[in-house]
Recover the amino acids of this structure.
């Protein structure tokens, strides 16, 4: 008898597994592009081995998203500067006339859209195994390794796992997502042998979970603990000194664990195909802001001179810096977020318990047994114009009630950002340049002017206020409709 879980998996697999005709189309396009890159390299008098890699080469791609990865293996004698410059030039020429986006991982590569298909043209060095000069040097070895082990059944299991991860929002190793790569999905399937086995295992994963498919560290747990400190450790069978899951952030891992448990409890296609976000009406957003009785501050600024992968790294770093600034000045943050259209609008969002603090603040001084520090404290605060009350003794130490320098969060942010774009408080360099050029601080429903005209931002803010992941049914009950 077919179980509800099996029925869901069969239905999804029928949607995502490419048929023979589609496979021929994509293989033909991939080979055509490979030859174009090869010809472009020859024209530039560069000796390159050009290969199709990734999910297309391993036949683990999804029918809806047939990304093609073309890798150029360049001579190891080539300098890093020449390697990056030459590879981009070759890729741009090979996809001339198509939409092109320069991307960046450890080094630049080109993303192009050819006949509606996303294509990544990536350089790597042609090296022997273990003699890596760049992170992408391992990819051809990954492809060769996985291809020899995946059976037709296991390829479909990989497809199910990929689509599940996409649906619950944890797929993608790029900085913006901080999730699972396609290669990780393949290693997990090889290790656990099926999609449902992966989910059953993930449902009981602990922080620091280890998956060592190659068996490099049997009875060497102490060595593992010294080598890796990540929340998830998946040993790369091509390079035992590398954690293939190092890009997976803790929050993405937690989401995958929680989604795995929820799906196993109540299998449903929404985990694979979440409903699209329907933005609230502006009046609904205004009502939610009012009902929460909190204050939300938006730091909005324009274009940042960085490719998307660098942009998101700098956005997250700057978000942490501004979060710390608010926290150090006693503003209690309920939640914070980052939004960007990766073009001309970037934004930090901080929801605070209150926008304005009282003028008075309690400041703890030294305990009485530190005589010198007590004398210095008294000298500083006894006749200070900033002192409201005290110094006074409380629980064996001096205490003073003093005046805060800044009372409002938006004023604090304005002060720190207008000087140097926030560099002094830890804002990343390219973000600070953009902020210094032009920025706005908007509070609460003032943001509705952007909300009304920008659908992507409206969807983001709607998801922010909904809070829960799309796969989490409401209510979570076995009587829920499948």
């Amino acid at each position: 008898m077919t179980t509800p879980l099996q029925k869901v998996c069969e239905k999804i697999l029928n949607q995502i597994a490419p048929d023979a005709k589609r496979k021929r189309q994509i293989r033909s396009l991939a080979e055509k592009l490979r030859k174009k890159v090869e010809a472009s390299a020859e024209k530039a008098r560069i000796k390159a081995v050009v290969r199709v890699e990734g999910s297309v080469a391993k036949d683990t791609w999804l029918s809806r998203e047939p990304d093609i990865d073309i890798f150029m293996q360049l001579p190891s004698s080539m300098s890093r500067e020449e390697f990056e410059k030459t590879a981009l030039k070759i890729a741009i020429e090979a996809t001339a006339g198509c939409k092109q986006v320069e991307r960046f991982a450890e080094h630049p590569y080109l993303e192009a859209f050819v006949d509606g298909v996303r294509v990544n043209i990536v350089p790597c060095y042609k090296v022997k195994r273990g003699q890596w000069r760049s992170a992408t040097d391992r990819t051809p070895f990954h492809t060769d390794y996985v291809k020899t082990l995946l059976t037709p059944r296991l390829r479909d299991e990989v497809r199910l796992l990929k689509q599940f991860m996409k649906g619950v929002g944890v797929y993608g190793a790029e900085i913006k997502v901080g999730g699972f790569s396609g290669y990780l999905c393949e290693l997990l399937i090889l290790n656990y042998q099926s999609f449902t086995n992966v989910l059953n295992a993930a449902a009981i994963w602990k922080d620091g979970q280890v998956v060592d498919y190659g068996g490099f560290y049997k009875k060497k747990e102490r060595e593992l603990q010294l080598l890796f400190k990540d929340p998830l450790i998946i040993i790369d069978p091509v390079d035992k000194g590398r954690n293939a899951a190092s890009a997976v952030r803790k929050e993405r891992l937690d989401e995958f664990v929680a989604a795995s448990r929820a799906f196993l409890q109540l299998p449903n296609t929404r985990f694979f195909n979440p409903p699209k976000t329907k933005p609230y009406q502006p009046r609904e957003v205004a009502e939610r802001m009012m009902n929460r009785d909190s204050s939300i501050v938006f730091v909005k600024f324009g274009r940042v001179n960085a490719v998307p992968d660098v942009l998101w790294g700098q956005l997250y770093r700057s978000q942490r810096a501004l979060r710390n600034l608010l926290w150090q000045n006693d503003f209690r943050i309920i939640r914070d977020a980052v939004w960007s259209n990766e073009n001309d609008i970037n934004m930090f969002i901080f929801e605070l318990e209150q926008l304005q603090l009282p003028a008075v603040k309690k400041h703890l001084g030294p305990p009485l047994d530190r005589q010198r520090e007590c004398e210095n404290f008294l000298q500083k605060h006894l006749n200070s114009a900033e002192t409201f009350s005290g110094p006074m003794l409380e629980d064996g130490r001096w205490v003073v009630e003093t005046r805060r320098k800044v009372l409002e969060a938006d004023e604090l942010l304005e002060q720190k950002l207008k000087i140097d774009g926030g560099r002094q408080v830890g804002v990343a360099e390219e973000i600070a340049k953009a902020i210094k050029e032009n920025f706005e601080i908007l509070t609460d429903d003032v943001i509705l002017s952007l909300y009304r005209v920008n659908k992507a931002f409206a969807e983001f803010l709607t998801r922010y206020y909904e809070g829960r992941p799309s796969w989490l049914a409401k209510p979570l009950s076995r009587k829920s409709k499948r």
Observations:
- The two ends are 18 Å apart (CA to CA).
